[in-house]
Each structure stands twice: as structure tokens, then as C-alpha cells.
Amino acid sequence: MFENDSSFSSFTVNAGQIFYVPSGALHHLENIGTEEVEFIVAFTHERPEDFGISGSFGAMTDAVLGNTYDLPAKAFEPLNRTTHATVIGRQESVSSIPTGARWGNPHKFDIEAMSAPISSLAGSARTACKKFWPILDDISMYSLQVTDEGMREPHWHPTTVEMGYIAKGNARMTVMNPGGSLVTYLLKPGDVYFIPRAYLHHIENLGDQYIHFLIFFDQNTPGDIGFKAFISGYSRETLAAAFGTNVENLPEFPFTPIDPLLVERVNPVDPIE
């Protein structure tokens, strides 16, 4: 990775780790193993744009490149150059790995190795946010696991959109827009979903094993408002008026000052329609 002020770094990334690239930083990804590598990549813009080394060279004449590198213009004639980047290139051999590439680097974060800030029988949530990874800017991520005994409670994110990738398991999600219309859909490994800012939603595990979501937000630190905690902020009289009933008809809501994010499932999963 090559950034402003000629700042250069090289580092390795393994399964379960994530990396961050600042906007405009030149970077490349290289498979240094013997098997195919899969990356899940998220951007902070809905229409990401980029250009590569080959494409940027194609924008310049041989003479301009020659002047830049103190070489004759003809030195660049053999290169196959257009203004469209190669995107994925084939190497004849794997590059040598610099010794420093295996050291720690501020651009990568071992999210699956961190102690989960939220963990219970219902599941766990590991968070790559600015609090734990200071280099982040306008992006953050959850590695969320929900067991077959848990559920991601109904909630919404007031100031951030959400995009998720299902790495393992089968789930059901219900989303309500501010106009009151609902959409419910099933999710399986490889699926991606998107939820606009401040849309109510929840996630249910439909299998007998845990589900694993990789969830991305367009804020340094995502916030949310969950059902379990917000109900404790209102008197029973206010709630009765909101539901159009009498106080004695209300359920005995537990007092919850800190929202748990994940709740244990004490009832069977609703049938799949």
C-alpha cells in the first residue's frame, strides 16, 4: 500500500482478519498461498470508483513516462497499456515477502482473534470500530454470530446504513420502512443484504447451528436502538396509551438499562410462510 507523503507498507492478511485502505491509497492484493483466496470487500460509497497502475500508465504518453523515470520514451513501447486497468493480473511467480510484512500493521485488524465485547448463549458480536481500530474513517464492521438459541433483537441504526454478508447458516430477516410497509426474506450463505438508515429490522436463526454475518456500516462507530432497552425508558401508563389498552393488559417488560443486542430465544421460531 502506498499513501500520501510516500508512506509505504506491506503486510500479510490471513483468514479471519480484515484490512482498511484509505480513500485514494494505491494498493494491491496478492495470493501468497496455494489455494484460491476469497475477500469480502465493502466500500463507503454506493458507486465505488478506482483506477489501477496499468490504467494510469495508459493515460500518459511514452514521452511523459520517459521524462518521469529518466528513461527514453521507447522503453515503454512494449507495455500493453490502455486507460482500463487490468483488475486481475497473472503473475509468473509469487513475489518475495518482505520480512516486515509479517509484523503488525495499523491497516489490518484480527477481528476473529479479539475477545468478543458481547458474548452469551445467544451468540457473540466482535466489532471493528474506531474504539478498537483507530485508523478507521467512516466505516466499521461487526462479525456477528447468532446461535440456534439466540436472535438479533428488533432494532434500528439512527445514523448509519447497514450492509451484510452471510458467511454461514440460514436466517430470516424482517425490515420495516418508516411508512409502515414490511418485507421478510430468507438469507443463505453467499447472500448480501442492504438496510437503509433508521429502518427497523431483526435477524432470526432458522437452523440448528449458529449463523455468521459480516456486517458493514458507513460510520466509524455504529449506534443502534433496540427493543429490549427502549421499552424501559417509558412509564407503563405511556405504553398503555401507545398500545391503546389498559395498564393491566401490558406484559411485564423486564427493566433493561443496557441493550443486549442479542437475546435468547425462549419461543419456537415462527413458521416459514
TrEMBL record:
Query: Cupin type-1 domain spans which residues?
Result: 109-251
Q: Which CDD domains match?
A: cupin_OxDC-like
Alphabetical list of InterPro entries matching this protein: Cupin_1, RmlC-like_jellyroll, RmlC_Cupin_sf, Seed_Storage-Functional
Which Pfam families does UniProt cross-reference here? Answer: Cupin_1
Would you tell me the protein name for this molecule? Cupin type-1 domain-containing protein
Instruction: Print the organism lineage.
Output: Eukaryota, Fungi, Fungi incertae sedis, Zoopagomycota, Entomophthoromycotina
